[in-house]
Fold these 4 entries.
Entry 1:
Amino acid sequence: MQNRTLEIGVGLFLMAGVLALLLLALRVSGLSVGSAGDTYKVYAYFDNIAGLTVRAKVTMAGVTIGKVTAIDLDRDSYMGRVTLELDGNVNNLPEDSTASILTAGLLGEKYIGISVGGDEEVLKDGSTIHDTQSSLVLEDLIGKFLLNSVNKDEAN
C-alpha cells in the first residue's frame, strides 16, 4: 500500500512539472490560454519592417500594452502595414503618438515601442499612427560604415 501511495505521489509531481513547463512555453511564445479581453485595433505604416513578427509585443514606457496581430503590404503606398491590437484600458493615447520598431538588446527580438504625443484627439478603433520609425537593419548600417571608410581612404 505504501508503494502505491509513493507511485501516485511521484506521478502527481511529474504531472505538475509537465503542466508548469507547458505554461512556461505558452508564456514565452506569446500565446495565451484565455481570451484577450477588451482590445482595439490601430494601424501603422513603416518603410521597413525587417525582423518584426506577428505576436510581437507593443510597449509604452517598457510596459506591454498590446501585440502585433497582422503584417502585410499596402498596395497603394508600397509600405508595410502593421496591425496593432492594444489593450482597452490604454484608450487615451494621443493621435500624434509615434510608433518605432525597436530591438531588445543588440540582436534580440523586434517589438514596437509607442511614444506619447501631445494631441487632444485620441486613437480609436481603426485609427492610423502616421508618425513611425522603421526598423534598423544591422547589415545596412555596416554597409554604410564600410562605404564611408572606403570613400575616406580614396580621398586621401
Entry 2:
Amino acid sequence: MLKLVIGNKNYSSWSLRPWLALRANNIPFEEIFIPLYTDQADKDRILAVSKAGKVPTLIDGDITVWDSLAIIEYLAERFPDTKLWPADRAARAHARAISAEMHSGFMALRNECGMNLHRPIRAVALSDDARANVARVQEIWADCHARYGKQGPFLFGAFSGADAMYAPVVHRFRTYAIPVKPEAQHYVDAMMALPAFQEWTRDGLAETLLIDRFEHV
C-alpha cells in the first residue's frame, strides 16, 4: 500500500494537496503523520524518509517521491484511470500551467495568510502584492469556469490535480475573510462540499498541537 507522510493538517497546505488527490479518488494509502516544528526527533523522522527534510513524501515500495506537485504527477501516471489531469491535451496543458503557477507563485498571499484552519475568521490588511495574488487566483477560477464549467463544478469539470493544488487557497480565503467574486464563488462552494476536503478540515480542526509562529497572524 502507498504511504503518504504528512505534517499537521491544521497548518500543512503542501500536505493537503497530494492527500486530497489520493482521498478524492479513493486510492488506498497509509497516512503517516509527523508533527512539524517540534523537536529534533521529528525532524530526524522526516529526514529518514526525505533528504529534502520536508513533507509531504509519498512512498510506493522502493520508490520515494517528495514535493506536492511531483507526487500528483506520479499519482496521475500510477493511476491513469483517476484522470488527475484532463484527457484533452489543451485542457491538460492548461491544468499543468496553473498548477505550476500555484506551486511557484503567490508568495505574498502565502506569507500574509498562512494556512491555519482553527484561526478565528477575520480579515487582515493585505499588501498590494497579496491583493494582486487574490485577484489572479480568482481570475484563474473564473476563467476555468467559463471554459469548462459545463463539464462539472471543478476547475476542469471533474476533480483534477489542479483542484488539489488550489485547495489550500480555498481555506485561506475562508479563514482571512477574503471576498470572493460571484464568478469564482461557485468553485469555493464546490471545494467546500467535496467529502475529502471536508474530512481533512474536520481532522485539522480536531488537532490540538499549536505552532506558535503561525498563531499570531
Entry 3:
Amino acid sequence: MTTAPGTVLVVEDEPSIADVLTIALRYHRFEVMTAGTVREALALAERTRPDAALLDVMLPDGDGRALGRELRSRQPELALVFLTARDSPAEIVGALGFGDDYITKPFNIDEVVARVTAVLRRTRTSDVLPQRPPLRYGDLELDETTYSVRRAGRSVELTPTEYALLRFLVRNGGRVVPKDQLLRHVWQYEHTPPESTVVETYISYLRRKLDALGPPLITTRRGVGYGLA
C-alpha cells in the first residue's frame, strides 16, 4: 500500500474554496484537515503536526501571515504556502519573507496541488536520514542530516526554501546558476512567467542573513543568474 504524500492543513474561511481545495488534494492522496479560523488552525496543528499549511491571508479572526509565523515557531519544519487575493510586490515579498510559496486568487486548482507537492518535495525529510558529511564552501557549512547552516561557526536560521536554494548554490560551487535552472530545481517550476521575482526575493533574504556574518557571499551575473564568490 502506498503512503500519502503528506498531510496538509487548509486554512480558508470560504467553505466553497475550502471544499474545492480539500477534494483536489485528497484526489492526489494527501491527507487534509481544514480550519476556518486562526483558533481552529492552531488547535488542529497542535494535535496533528501537518507537513504543510495552505493559508488564506485574510481570516475572520486574524492574519494568515501571523498565523504562519506562529505555526512555524511551533513546528520549524512546517512548509507554508499562502493564498492571497493581493498580488502587489509588497504583499508577495511579505508572504515570502518566511513562507515557502504563495498563490494568488483566483487560482488554478491543478497549480495549487503542484505547488504544494513541490514545496513538500524540497522541504520534507524522510523518517530516517542517513548520516551525510556536511557540505562546505569557504566558511559556510550545511549539515544535510539536521538541515542546519553555520557560517564562520555561527548558526544561520533559514526557512526550508532558503535552505534548498543555498544548498543548490553550494552544490554548484563557484558556477553561475541561471535563474530558470534555479526555478526548476529549487521551486520545481517548469513554466514560470519571465517577470516572476521569486528567485530575486529569496536571494535577497539569503544575502541579508549570510552577509551579517561575513563578507558578501552570493554574486549576481546580471541577466544570467547567481553563484557563490
Entry 4:
Amino acid sequence: MYAEERQRAILKQARQNGRVDVATLAAAFEITSETVRRDLTALERSGVVRRVHGGAIPVERLGVEPGLDARDAVMTAEKDRIALAALEQVPAEGAILLDGGTTVGRLANLIPADRELTVVTPSLPNAFALANRPGITLMLVGGRLRGHTMASVDSWALNALKDTYVDIAFIGANGLSVERGLTTPDTAEAMVKRAAIASARRTVLLADHTKVGNDHFARFGDLDDVDTLITDIGIDPRTADEITRTGVKVIAV
C-alpha cells in the first residue's frame, strides 16, 4: 500500500472512530510506529487531523475550523485541477454565483476578463479577484463579514440572495456524505450556502477528496441539491459510485 492510500485509510478510520492511536495503526498496517507518526504528521499538515499524545483526532471532532490562509495552503494541486475543470462549466455569458472558500476562490482567479458575466459573490477575496475585469458585472453580497472565511453572512446576505437568480452556483463545502449531505462548521455560513443553492438553476460543488465522507456541525443541503461534483482523483471509487447513484454527476480530475 502506498503512503497516500494508507493515509486515506487512517483518516477514514479516525473519522469513523473519533481518534486513532499509533500502536493500533502500526499493528493493523504491519508498519513501524515511526512510519505511522510520519503519516499522522502528513495528515496534520493537510489540516485534517490534530496530533495528540499517542495518536490523532480528526479536526472536526475538536470543533476546529482552520482559517482561510491555513486551508489555502493544503491540497493546492488538487484544488487547482478542480478549479480548472470548473472553468469549463462557466458560461460565456449570463449570471453565476461564486461561494466563499479556497477552491471556489481559485476558480474566481481563472475567469477570463472577456466573459460577459454577472457574478454574484458573498466572498471578499472573490470580489477583489474580479473587480477590475471589464466584462464582469460584480454583485457583492453584503452582510456581516466572517473573518474565518472572509465571506458575508447573516440577514443582509440572505435578503440579497432571496431576490437573486443565477444560471449556475459554484459552491464549496467543508464536508459531504451520502448520509448527511453538505455540511460546514458554522450555522451562519450554512444559511448563506443554502440560499445560494436556492438561487441557482444548477449547482456545481467543488470539493477535494478530503471533504468526502467528512461531516460538520451545520447541514446546508442534500446531495440531490447538487447537479455536479468536481473533485480530485483521490476520491475513493466506491464512494464516488455511491454519490453517482444519488443522481450527482461526479467529475474527478
